[in-house]
Amino acid sequence: MKKKILIFIFVLLFSLLFVNGKNMVKAASIGTIKYTYSRTILKDMEYTYTESNNGSPQRAYVLKYNPKSTQVDCLAVFGEELFGGDKISHNIQLAKSQGYSVVAGVNASPFDTSNGVTVGTTIQNKRLVVTTSGPLSTNYDNFAILEDGSAYIGHPNFDLKFNVNGGSDIDITYLNRQKKTENNYVYLISRDFASDTKTLANSCEAVLTITKGDLLVNSTIECKVDSVNNSTTRTKVESGKLVLVGPSLTSLGNLKANDKVNIKIRDNDNSFDWTKVTQTISGFYQILGTNSYTGKNCKQELYSRSDRNDRHPRTTLGYKQNGEIVVYVADGRQPGLAVGMTDLECAEYMESLGCVAAIRMDGGGSTNLGIRLPGDDYVTTVNKPSDGDERSDADAFLFVLKKDYNTNVDSSLLLHAYPNDLKLLENTVTSITVKATDNNYNKKDCPEYSMEVQNGAGEIVEGNKFKARSGSGSGKIVITSSSATTSVNVNVTNKVDELYASVNNLALSPNEKVSLSVKAYYDSNLLICSNEAFKWKCDEAIGTIDKSGNFTATSDAGKNGTITVSYGTLTAKVNVSIGQLPIEISGFETDKEGAWRNTQIGGGSGSCSINTDLRYVRYGEKSLKIDFNLAKTTGTVGTQIGKANNVSISGTPTAIGVWIYATPEAQGAWIRLQYAQSGSSGALYADFGHIDWQGWKYLEAPIDTSVKYPISVKYLVRIMAVSESERLDGSIYVDGLRAVYGFTNDDIILPTIENIVPSAVTNSNQQTISFDMIDLESGINKEKTIFKLDGKQIDNLIIKDIANGFNVSFTPSALIPLNNGTHSISIRIEDNAGNFTVKDFNVTVDNTIPKMNAIIDDNILRVGDISTYTISSTNTNFDKLYLTIDTSNISVDDIVLSSSYQKNIVSNDNNTLVLEITNNGSSSTDILNINFKAINQGQGNVIINGYFTNSKYADLKMNLDEFKYEVEISDNLESILGFIKSNIDDFFE
């Protein structure tokens, strides 16, 4: 009896495990699968996307095909040239322009980040494109495609030599790499590399014309020497030519023009014939299988690596025993979305997919997989690159249709539904998109179609929308056109066993609105669901939330509480803070020298120090100065500033804010902050971007809302260089580091100094100096105004109210005038929030600026009488004199110039005559006489205005000497008689 009971219990437990665990799928290393779907993108080419959790969220993207049955070729691509690298999207466009039809693409080689050139070996269409000769080439494994389309992972070991006129062989160390420093290596450069050799160190460079052969493994290339330059850099490289680069003429065999050069490429790998390789691109190292070079088990070798526990975005290539090729991409560095995989986890996952060998390619921000989904005529990046966008990489593998693939086109139609598999919570409504291709998966216009739901799984509403039934059930949606049909599997449930809100924490401003969403799982399947299926509630103190998950924060600041979403007995909570003001992390006011320390990254270097120069202080009296030196380095380099221990941050900040003063030398520098989340030693980054400003600027870098709080700052500044434009030597100043909680009510706008008078030059020793200080936010704190003249603070300032600020003026006294010469002025103003602005400028006093004098021979003009107006100056220190004469009451009869002055009539219309008088080196202070007469009776004026210009002061207009003269025109009887007398003869004619 006991035996029967035990058997019954065993069977019952086994049945329960089987029933409850039927979908609790666990995949090696990526953990429990939460959601997955697959799609055929070409005949016998499958794409699968998987979300999982192995203690952290993961996302896996897998592309599989069998080269024996799938009509694709694999193509190694590197843009128009090796130097600089390129994006996959551009490589795809290049391939299209060459007649290829691209189905997919994935990033490949690790590379020298200073120039974008792979650090390994590349072969394209059997041509050797880039390599390192001899044993050094074995530092990187390669993923190779053979003539039959199958794959191989191994160590290329090529030997490159040349001889001159049949003489002794000379080693070539590098093919198509950049010579940066003085060394004894010989380089061979082809047009694949760049339009010139890009050499940075002075070299001997010989241009060769290829007369026979090509850069093929186990071949000899015959060349003739065109020219030799024994001391040069950056020699031009043309198609059909090669350039030998060495440290001296001796290193190149003392070759000369018209010499014959033979270049030999030999395969030294005794275990594999590399002449069978059509395409190959480097990875870092093999992670699965037996290493062909060391003979060791690759997985076992991973255990000894110091970075074995590091999780990053990964790109991995492998193959199965049957020849099937597998591409695996893992997202990473994105908390809440995907953390990333270790090398060992990638190896185990590739093994679970059936691979017998796999290699780790370049990863991190380079990880990128593009797929042409059925019904599209373009390739879409399906993963989420950790940089936020695709990166320029050294090279990529493109999977392209074989040239004869569409020779016999099967025009029959295929329909493709998106999504192609539905798992829904009851009563959920979702859209279905339908696309079409021909039988070769080339895009076609989608025909009219109908949708029918089978087995009562739900109903079609609003054309292409499906509404799930109430309760649970399964069925199909059959999509039919006149010539094709497809279906979508449907599973509907009213059960949920895992529930997560879209965010764990919210920090909002008062009255701010936000829409939340939910992820719901049943039996480890991610369900499509609508917010209305769940119950939403929130603490009354923090605001209100409707049945669709739309939350409105209270108008009161400083409130904290919880939003709860539930389904049945399951709940998920969101912590909410309303109106939490920023909290200072560091203002550097109490920090002593040495509190902040520098750590170098790669070959970068730098230093930090506490600064007290107020020009470079944003708040208080101190800031942190950071000097960085990245200009003379290669690879990924940088400098990072942190304390001995991480700096803790309280609460749930949404961003880190900081003020950065950028010097001109810092333009282009990339600034990031590194932080850590609770319970994890992994590095997370908040990005401040690249410097494109000078002076102070406030920046905020967002914190991922899915992190596990609390967080702490590890490095408050990381100045990184991964490209040539970022390799800089410069300085920045940092102040006001703070945690931001989704709300700020502070004034971070700098006050401005405007309308400075004089702008540059004055001829007065008692020139009034004035300016406006303006602030539109918190207002100017006039008590904090500092005005220094020639280093001495001036206290007897006159400050008057104006709109949005104050006008400040100072006039030197007659007892202490401004001496001739240049005077330095420094102004510091501050607003009521503590923001301040410093302005330094110079004013030049020069009383040699000419002054105009004018004399008229009679202030009473009679109609018809000619009067003379004489203009002179105190000196001839001017280039031009401009005069404006009002001619409404007078006519100008003549203008008489003194010697070496030249007249130009600028305009003469609308009763205004404008003259330009040029000084051609005259020594006469008498400039000109203007003869004119009155033409109108009655009372009137003659108005003449004028100003000097002087190129000595950058053509500054000297309006200080502008003048205005008014002359009365008589209308008495004497003037009338005078007019008749003077014109009597004309009258009687």
What characteristics describe this protein?
13-stranded mixed beta sheet, mainly beta, 80 strands, 6% helix, disordered N terminus, eight-stranded antiparallel beta sheet, 989 residues
The tally of helices reads: 5
Give the end-to-end Cα distance, rounded to a whole number of Å: 158 Å
The total count of strands amounts to 80
Strand residues, percent: over 45%
Structural class: mainly beta
Shape: globular
Average pLDDT number:
88
Into which percent range does the helicity of residues fall? under 10%
Radius of gyration: 41 Å
Main sheet: strands, sense, barrel:
13 strands, mixed
Strand order of the largest sheet: 12-11-21-9-10-15-16-19-17-18-20-13-14
Low-confidence stretches: 1-24, 959-963, 972-977
